[in-house]
Description:
Radius of gyration: 22 Å
Distance between the termini: 21 Å
Number of strands: 12
CATH class of the largest domain: Alpha Beta
Structural class: alpha/beta
Shape: globular
CATH superfamily of the largest domain: NAD(P)-binding Rossmann-like Domain
CATH topology of the largest domain: Rossmann fold
Number of domains: 2
Oligomer: single chain
Amino acid sequence: MKIVVLDGYPGNxxxxxxxxxxxxxxxxFYDRTAPEEMIERAKDAEIVLTNKVCFKAxxxxxxxxxxxxxxxxxxxxxxxxxxxxxxxxVVTNIPAYSTNSVAQxxxxxxxxxxxxxxxxxxxxxxxxxxxxxKDFCFMDTPQHEIFGKKIGLxxxxxxxxxTARIAIGFGMEVYAFTSKSExxxxxxxxxxxxxxxxxxxxxxxxxxxxxxxxxxxxxAERLKLMKPNAIIINTSRGPVVNAADxxxxxxxxxILAAGMDVLETEPPKADNPLLHAKxxxxxxxxxxxxxxxxxxxxxxxxxxVKAFMEGNPVNVVx
Length: 318
């Protein structure tokens, strides 16, 4: 079978191998594919692998040879799955490969806000603030412990659960807004309704999928519920947070800080209000992208394609 990878660079910027995929068929690899290039590049392929290149309903009539789309990610909203199914095209995703990496980034943001390690490294290496200090130490930001803090998890799937385990290890009080019943939760996790979670917790961490009910879940009304020293972390999906409302809350000092790995549009537009909001710390959608997670991603991707070719597809989402 002919295999085309439309945007392989994010998952494999050159430090991994495509040899296992090449063993499965005739492969063509593109680092990136613009929307207007997709049909031309995919028209002769039976198997197409995509990360963020979209497949709309009207595209399938132009791709009569297409039998399979492998999404190189967990989220698969880039493909019109109903249209794919109607055209006999199997769509698969890659679940749970980055669970521990995303949980780790959640705490990287929390610890950065509470300890400001990057800030101090910069001040010392570039501005000589410690060298010129009158004291044995140099400190110009508050320092906080996370021990005993209340963390509220919005969503308790794979990543939310991994984050909870780390929080328990740090000695935090863990609360969750989840569809799971109280009887399904370990004793260290207490269930709360969403608004109560925002009222009570020192840290809100988002681990929910993007759905019509979660879009703008974090908005002006919920931000007003939060403590003035509370922080919010988003490693889920950008549109879960209303950017304008969060920027206003940060700039007014309504909450302490935010750590964001995702934004509504990626890469962000220059006028995104969070880019210059007070105490907003942004990483460029890299929580998923540790070397170890990408090795798993590639292994599962190859396994998905191989299973499809053998007539027993796995991780099917349509």
